[in-house]
Write a structure and sequence with these properties.
Blueprint lengths: L17 E4 L9 H16 L3 E4 L11 H14 L5 E2 L16 H12 L4 E4 L44 E4 L5 E6 L3 E6 H4 L3 E4 L7 H11 L4 E5 L3 H14 L5 E5 L1 E3 L15 H7 L2 H11 L11 H7 L10 E3 L7
Parallel strand pairs: 1-2, 2-3, 9-10, 11-12
Antiparallel strand pairs: 4-5, 5-8, 6-7
Bound molecules: glutamic acid.
Glutamic acid (GLU) binds next to loops.
Amino acid sequence: MRLTIVITKVSSHSPVPVGRFAPSPSGRMHLGNIFTALISWLSVRHAGGKWVLRIEDLDPQRSKMEFAKMIEDDLQWLGLVWDEGGTDEIGPNGPYSQSHRGEIYADAIRRVQATGYTYACTCSRADILATQAPHQSDGRVIYGGKCCPPHFPVRWDGVQSSYPHAVRLHVPDEEIVFDDTIYGVQRVNLVRECGDFILRRADGAWAYQLAVVVDDAMMGITEVVRGNDLLLSAAQQIYLYRLLGLTPPGFAHLPLVCNGAGRRLSKRDQSLSMEQLRARYTPGQLLGRLAYMANLVPEPSPCSLSELVSLFSWDCLPKVDKLIVDADNWK
Ligand code: GLU
């Protein structure tokens, strides 16, 4: 199967751009999450588009409604209102919480299985993390292909394995090419970078990669904005779009917001959690600092969302790997 170049830059020419923020409700947001939310929001508002809030609660162990509510409260505090989605299920493309979209994913996986490029996988350990977005710092391994059949396409009859099995997607040994708005043209060989990947876990849980593609497509998303540790996922997703006969959105991966030690912010970086940030700053002060990080303003003084909407330009964003934020300088 040949994959041709897919031009997937966030385009200022889409008729009505639709962006989205897709947090996992497994904790309170931190500076990195709110930075992503702001840039995604500004990009669509600047172009007169719509913004969708999708709750990525595929992992039943880690996801909690109270965190989803806190995320909504933090977004609203900063003024980042959404047009569709959220826990109140506003809009025609719901449900907007992935935990309620099982039937939609079941239909999509049948369509992928019909291509003959999936197989039953009984390797048990590897599928645990499949419901979560594979941030590169999490150190995932490349699947070695133990359960991979010798030839493709294979006929999926649904009873290939009598044991509990994950559904794994075979990836092509060729480059998938896409044009990221920040980092430019990317060439990814999925065989080398990740190997065959999971679409549904053995326990029936849906994998992030399948859910995100199906949801972004059904919700009419034209631009995906998120941290650059999901660049590789864009290639996996473009491959899935292809198999499902869907058009991929544009992708803009942002420099990763890191702590003083150069590591992606996590729940442990308490001082940069929204709880602390809200205690320390007014929304205008925090916006000014976020806009300064994004290179939209020359200094970190307070500003308003409406000022930023008119100032916004993708050209300003720093094209670096990491934005190091030393919590002490943020006091
Ligand atoms: N739910 C993912 C996360 O919180 C977002 C992935 C995406 O934006 O595609 O990391």
